[in-house]
Structure formats: structure tokens, C-alpha cells
């Protein structure tokens, strides 16, 4: 009998379909795992920005978590937009209750258009309650700076910030490079609590169709972990997946368009050329 790994995303809904729950479920489907979802907030959003946010009540989040936990065998899960301290506390409590492992925490804070997807006072809750449970935390550069107070200017300050995030209790951190200043490359930097570090480097693709890159990347990591890959391999696939999704744009919407979740499956990966991923130990 075929056994499909079961996964969960705990995140916000993006009516535009490019980020949040929608990006996560598309990515899960593309990578061959079964996706369940707990919605923390509904956003009215499209490629030009977020026009409204409606957080769920803590009870609504709790009921969804319970429904999933009571029936599914969650092999890996991710969190995205959690919005407020109450939702973070409830999420952390339930993850412990069900003993869910392979937790990917994407500390979503600010949408590309500038909307706040996490309240300022929730940053502390994220650090205290959720990060200690994480197998891996995947901040972008501004999020890593907000979590640590360290300005990331070069490899030394990036490592310093990564160490600081590990000191909060996560087993590993990946500081993603989409917001980096290198015009030619986008580098994702992994630091594990063992001290081991890896850089995953791709060509930087010149595009404004980057809506949902972080969600998609973290969902791909989650899917690969659910399939039994180790973290280092899961990150490699995720980097390939997002590179393919960025290099074959859909041209949808008037603003920051969504990435193409089907590209990895449809086109495969050219080992050379724009989709080549370099790995440095
Ligand atoms: N222009 C780009 N070219 C290639 N890869 C990119 C580009 N922008 C983002 N990425 C990749 O997309 C993933 C998400 O990164 P990032 O954009 O930093 O996250 P977020 O969406 O959370 O801001 C990372 O793997 C990063 O390297
Ligand atoms: C509901 C929701 N969750 C997350 C993001 C972040 O998107 P990005 O991955 O582009 O930073 C978003 N815009 N909306």
C-alpha cells in the first residue's frame, strides 16, 4: 500500500494565492506529500499588497490544530504568519502536546509590500515559545536582524546573527539571501547547533515575481523532511525548487507576482545554467 507522508502548515491565508497557506499546499502537492492546514489569519491580499488582516480567534486556531492532531500522522510541519502572541502560544502548546517533530519555523514578519504580518509584541513570544521547538528556523535577512538586533552586512555578521538565533534553542537556522546585496547570487546560509555550516548558492534571478518565495522555500523543506530526507538534503531540494519557480515566471497580477510552483516538476532542473545550485561547506 502506498504511504504518502502527511504534513501540516500553520499559516495565514493569502487571497492572491501566491504566499501563505496557498503557497504551502501547492508546494506540498508538487513535492508529493499530503498537506493539511491550520489558518491563523485571513488576509485580503493580491500581488500589489495586503489591504486587510483578520486574525482567527485563539479558539479557532486551537480547534483546527486539535482536528489535525487527532486524526493525522504529521511527519513534518511548518509555521508561517502567526500574527499575535496568543496564536504563537497556542501553536507551541499544541506542537508539544502532539509531540510533533520536524518543525520548520518561517518567522514571517513583514510582507513584501510592507504590511505587518506579526505584531511587534509577538516577536518575543516567537523567540521564547516557538524557536526552542524548531528543527530549523528560516528567517530572511531583515527577520534575522529583527530577531537578533544584529545588522547583517557581510559573512561575519551573518554568522554572528545565526549563532545568536541558535542560542534561542533552535537546532538549526538558515538565513535566506533573497534580500542580500550580491547582484549576481542569492545565498542561503545554514548553521547547525553542531557548528557545521553550509552555503547554498544560486544565480540571482532578475524578477519582481517573488511573492511567496519564503513560504514556498520553507514548505519545500517541510515536504522533503516528511519524506525522510535529512535537513541538508531537504534544503538543497528546496533551493532547487525555488530556483525553478523563480526562473519560469507566470506573469500573473500587476505587482509582485507569484512564483511558479509547477516549474520544478514540469521542466526538471538543468544541472548547468541558471538553475545550478552550488554548495560550499
Ligand atoms: N531574485 C532571486 N533569485 C534567486 N533566488 C532568490 C531570489 N529571491 C529570493 N530567492 C531565494 O528564495 C528563497 C526565499 O528567500 P527570501 O526572498 O530571502 O525570503 P522571504 O520571501 O522570506 O523574504 C531563498 O532560497 C532565496 O535564496
Ligand atoms: C498570508 C501571508 N503569509 C506570508 C506572506 C509573506 O510572503 P513572502 O514569502 O513573499 O515573504 C504573505 N505575504 N502573506
UniProtKB/TrEMBL annotation:
Pfam families: Phos_pyr_kin
Gene Ontology MF term list: ATP binding; hydroxymethylpyrimidine kinase activity; phosphomethylpyrimidine kinase activity
GO cellular component, one term: cytosol
Broadest EC class assigned to this enzyme: transferase
Keywords attached to this entry: ATP-binding, Kinase, Nucleotide-binding, Thiamine biosynthesis, Transferase
Keyword hit for Ubl conjugation: no
EC number(s) on file: 2.7.1.49, 2.7.4.7
Domain called Pyridoxamine kinase/Phosphomethylpyrimidine kinase: residue spans: 14-260
Coiled-coil intervals, chain numbering: none
Catalytically driven reaction(s): 4-amino-2-methyl-5-(phosphooxymethyl)pyrimidine + ATP = 4-amino-2-methyl-5-(diphosphooxymethyl)pyrimidine + ADP; 4-amino-5-hydroxymethyl-2-methylpyrimidine + ATP = 4-amino-2-methyl-5-(phosphooxymethyl)pyrimidine + ADP + H(+)
One GO term (biological process): thiamine biosynthetic process
UniProt KW Transferase keyword: yes
Pathway: Cofactor biosynthesis; thiamine diphosphate biosynthesis; 4-amino-2-methyl-5-diphosphomethylpyrimidine from 5-amino-1-(5-phospho-D-ribosyl)imidazole: step 2/3; Cofactor biosynthesis; thiamine diphosphate biosynthesis; 4-amino-2-methyl-5-diphosphomethylpyrimidine from 5-amino-1-(5-phospho-D-ribosyl)imidazole: step 3/3
Gene3D superfamilies: 3.40.1190.20
Listed PANTHER family: HYDROXYMETHYLPYRIMIDINE_PHOSPHOMETHYLPYRIMIDINE KINASE THI20-RELATED, PHOSPHOMETHYLPYRIMIDINE KINASE
NCBIfam families: HMP-P_kinase (TIGR00097)
Family membership noted in the UniProt record: Belongs to the ThiD family.
Name recorded for this polypeptide: Hydroxymethylpyrimidine/phosphomethylpyrimidine kinase
Originating organism: Planococcus versutus
Lineage of the species this protein comes from: Bacteria, Bacillati, Bacillota, Bacilli, Bacillales
Amino acid at each position: 500500500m502506498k504511504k504518502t507522508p502527511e504534513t501540516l502548515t500553520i499559516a495565514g491565508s493569502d487571497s492572491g494565492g501566491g504566499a501563505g497557506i496557498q503557497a504551502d499546499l501547492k508546494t506540498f502537492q508538487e513535492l508529493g506529500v499530503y498537506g493539511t492546514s491550520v489558518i491563523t489569519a485571513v488576509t485580503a491580499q493580491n500581488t500589489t499588497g495586503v489591504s486587510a488582516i483578520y486574525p482567527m480567534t485563539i479558539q479557532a486556531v486551537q480547534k483546527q490544530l486539535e482536528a489535525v492532531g487527532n486524526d493525522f500522522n504529521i511527519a513534518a510541519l511548518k509555521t508561517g504568519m502567526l500574527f499575535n502572541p496568543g496564536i504563537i502560544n497556542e501553536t507551541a502548546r499544541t506542537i508539544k502536546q502532539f509531540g510533533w517533530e520536524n518543525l520548520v519555523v518561517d518567522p514571517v514578519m513583514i510582507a513584501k509590500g510592507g504590511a505587518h504580518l506579526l505584531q511587534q509584541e509577538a516577536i518575543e513570544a516567537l523567540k521564547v515559545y516557538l524557536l526552542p521547538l524548531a528543527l530549523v528556523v528560516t528567517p530572511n535577512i531583515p527577520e534575522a536582524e529583527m530577531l537578533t538586533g544584529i545588522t547583517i552586512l557581510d559573512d561575519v555578521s551573518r554568522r554572528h546573527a545565526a549563532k545568536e538565533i541558535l542560542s534561542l534553542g533552535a537546532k538549526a537556522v538558515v538565513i535566506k539571501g533573497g534580500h542580500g546585496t550580491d547582484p549576481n547570487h542569492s545565498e542561503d546560509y545554514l548553521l547547525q547547533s553542531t557548528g557545521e555550516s553550509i552555503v547554498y548558492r544560486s544565480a540571482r534571478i532578475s524578477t519582481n515575481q517573488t511573492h511567496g518565495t519564503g513560504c514556498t522555500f520553507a514548505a519545500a523543506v517541510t515536504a522533503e523532511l516528511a519524506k525522510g530526507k535529512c535537513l541538508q538534503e531537504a534544503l538543497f531540494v528546496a533551493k532547487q525548487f525555488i530556483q525553478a519557480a523563480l526562473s519560469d515566471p507566470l506573469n500573473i497580477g500587476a505587482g509582485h507576482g507569484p512564483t511558479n510552483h509547477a516549474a520544478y516538476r514540469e521542466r526538471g532542473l538543468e544541472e548547468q545554467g541558471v538553475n545550478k545550485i552550488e554548495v560550499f561547506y
